[in-house]
Design the sequence.
């Protein structure tokens, strides 16, 4: 395997993208993902690949659209306010069936918010975000090594399903340093050819990249094709982790940084005799409704903990479907819940 | 008596880079002439198999129907950024962006200026007809002072809406672009001049020289509420006073 290094989450995502064969990276500076941009600025040109500091987030995602059309692996990254600006381009990527990876190192909002870690972009990431009926695959790492693994996976899924894929992390994960064993670089030449790409109409009919048709029946068929692919993704790509759920009678449902913190809470609660387990969605879209439903039949309570006002909570309640109690504890504005604080919430519902 | 065609030589035909699909443009609109000139240029340079067109939002949104090269339909105003992505991802491709005045000089202002400022090795065709054609004739950033549009029913008042923006002159202030020119299509001479300019803009890219911009003054008889002949005259006598023809820079 690869060498072991001490790296920040942002750097690991950047390095994993390079090793996944990302040929073109376009982005605009924003805190707290600057290290990602800087890592790419330093390393992409050395490898003969494209780095552009774009004039805006909209320009960056539009450059991604162009590079994706040509069939190369491409990525952009930003943080919450910047991701809002990218929604136009993400909708076009989805509508035009283009693979691309978008990284959101989420910060506090709404508006300018702050630069502290948050999970308040869950709705935007998982429910569409831009205009039209579409989804992105959304991957939520909870550790620095996992951020690297999921970034590699994101490029594969994007190509496989011809869809934008988002890495949804937060400022804490972006800034945190952890020892990481980086994955081996892939052999770009071994990737399947993209017959649909606009690489020049030599020996074939012209290829067209578009999300447009004025005939409602045609546009309906284009939408049905998208929806069919989303059903395939829902059937095949659900990912989640369970911890200490076998004998649990109360569960925490949490993702990303909060899930990581909650693992400590599970140990603390177990030391007090509370049978606490953890359910951690890794794909936020498609959300793991079915495994959660099965767990909900065996526990009394599923406590959702988020750094938001309760966004994933809605999906947890859909999954639990009133088979268990579904209380919520959240922090907002960039406040990160402490294990002790989460434990006191668990105690309220454990008795 | 039937005429023999045996000895006749075909001297003019449809460019091979155009499909058989009919244009969706209105009678008297210059978009059709311009689309043909671009196709003819692609033919002459023998580059149809390595050309990628980037289509805008606006009347030219259907460009993918007409060219025999690969075409990408971009979001409104972003064609120059999309073209940047295409060219950087595959520098062997010949990339042109085709954008109207609303697309290039209003909603796409940032993308247009910065692609030029980076000196992207692309060709941009900027169609200036001083009006939003597809959405029903609203004011464009290039609309003339006093011009009546559906959003300036009493004529464009500079106190409220500013002046027609000379975007190519702004681009010409930058260090990176190699060729910035303004052309028109209202008579045969102008069509021939514009054809030469477009060929030069593509040739610059083929030779790796960098960013070329060809602004083309075009008519919109439908939204100008003019006959095609009146529209041509209007460009020649009025529009060129505000938007003078000729090369702004030529560093090729």
Sequence:
């Amino acid at each position: 395997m690869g060498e072991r290094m001490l790296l920040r989450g942002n750097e690991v995502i950047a390095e994993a993208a390079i090793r996944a064969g990302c040929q073109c990276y376009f982005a605009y500076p924003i805190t707290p993902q600057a290290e990602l941009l800087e890592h790419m600025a330093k390393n992409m040109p050395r490898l003969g690949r494209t780095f552009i500091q774009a004039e805006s987030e909209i320009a960056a995602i539009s450059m991604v659209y162009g590079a994706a059309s040509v069939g190369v692996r491409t990525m952009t990254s930003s943080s919450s306010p910047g991701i809002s600006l990218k929604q136009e381009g993400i909708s076009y990527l989805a509508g035009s069936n283009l693979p691309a990876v978008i990284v959101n190192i989420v910060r506090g909002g709404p508006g300018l918010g702050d630069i502290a870690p948050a999970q308040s972009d869950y709705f935007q990431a998982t429910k569409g975000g831009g205009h039209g009926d579409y989804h992105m695959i959304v991957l939520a790492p909870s550790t620095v090594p996992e951020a690297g693994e999921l970034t590699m996976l994101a490029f594969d899924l994007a190509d496989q399903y011809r869809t934008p894929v988002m890495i949804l992390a937060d400022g804490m994960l972006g800034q945190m340093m952890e020892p990481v064993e980086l994955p081996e670089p892939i052999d770009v030449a071994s990737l399947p050819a993209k017959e649909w790409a606009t690489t020049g109409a030599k020996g074939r009919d012209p290829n067209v990249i578009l999300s447009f048709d004025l005939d409602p029946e045609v546009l309906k068929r284009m939408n049905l094709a998208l929806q069919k692919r989303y059903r395939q993704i829902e059937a095949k790509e659900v990912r989640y982790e369970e911890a200490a759920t076998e004998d649990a009678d109360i569960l925490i449902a949490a993702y990303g940084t909060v899930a990581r913190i909650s693992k400590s809470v599970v140990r603390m609660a177990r030391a007090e005799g509370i049978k606490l387990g953890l359910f951690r969605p890794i794909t936020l879209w498609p959300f793991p409704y079915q495994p959660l439903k099965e767990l909900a039949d065996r526990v009394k309570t599923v406590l959702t903990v988020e750094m938001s006002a309760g966004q994933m909570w809605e999906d947890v309640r859909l999954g639990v479907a009133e088979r268990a109690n579904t209380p919520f504890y959240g922090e907002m504005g960039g406040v990160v819940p402490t294990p002790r604080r989460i434990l006191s919430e668990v105690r309220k519902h454990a008795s | 008596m039937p005429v023999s065609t045996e000895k006749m030589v075909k001297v003019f035909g449809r460019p091979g880079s155009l499909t058989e699909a009919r244009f969706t443009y209105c009678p008297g609109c210059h978009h059709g002439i311009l689309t043909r000139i671009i196709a003819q240029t692609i033919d002459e340079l023998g580059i149809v198999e390595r050309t990628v067109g980037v289509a805008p939002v606006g009347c030219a949104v259907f460009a993918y129907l007409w060219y025999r090269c690969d075409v990408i339909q971009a979001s409104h105003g972003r064609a120059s950024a999309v073209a940047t992505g295409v060219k950087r991802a595959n520098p062997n491709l010949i990339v042109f962006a085709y954008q109207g005045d609303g697309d290039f000089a209003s909603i796409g202002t940032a993308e247009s200026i910065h692609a030029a400022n980076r000196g992207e090795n692309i060709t941009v065709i900027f169609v200036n007809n001083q009006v939003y054609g597809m959405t029903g004739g609203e004011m464009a950033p290039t609309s003339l002072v006093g011009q009546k549009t559906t959003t300036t029913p009493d004529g464009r008042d500079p106190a409220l809406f500013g002046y027609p923006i000379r975007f190519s002159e702004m681009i010409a202030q930058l260090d990176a672009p190699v060729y910035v020119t303004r052309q028109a299509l209202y008579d045969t001479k102008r069509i021939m001049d514009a054809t030469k300019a477009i060929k030069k803009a593509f040739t610059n890219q083929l030779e790796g020289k960098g960013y070329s911009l060809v602004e083309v003054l075009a008519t919109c008889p439908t939204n100008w509420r003019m006959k095609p002949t009146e529209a041509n005259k209007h460009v020649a006598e009025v529009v060129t006073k505000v938007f003078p023809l000729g090369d702004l820079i030529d560093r090729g």
Observations:
- Residues 30-250 of chain B form a domain with the Rossmann fold fold (CATH 3.40.50.970).
- Chain B has a mean pLDDT of 96.
- The radius of gyration of chain B is 18 Å.
- The CA atoms of residues 125 and 214 of chain B lie 5 Å apart.
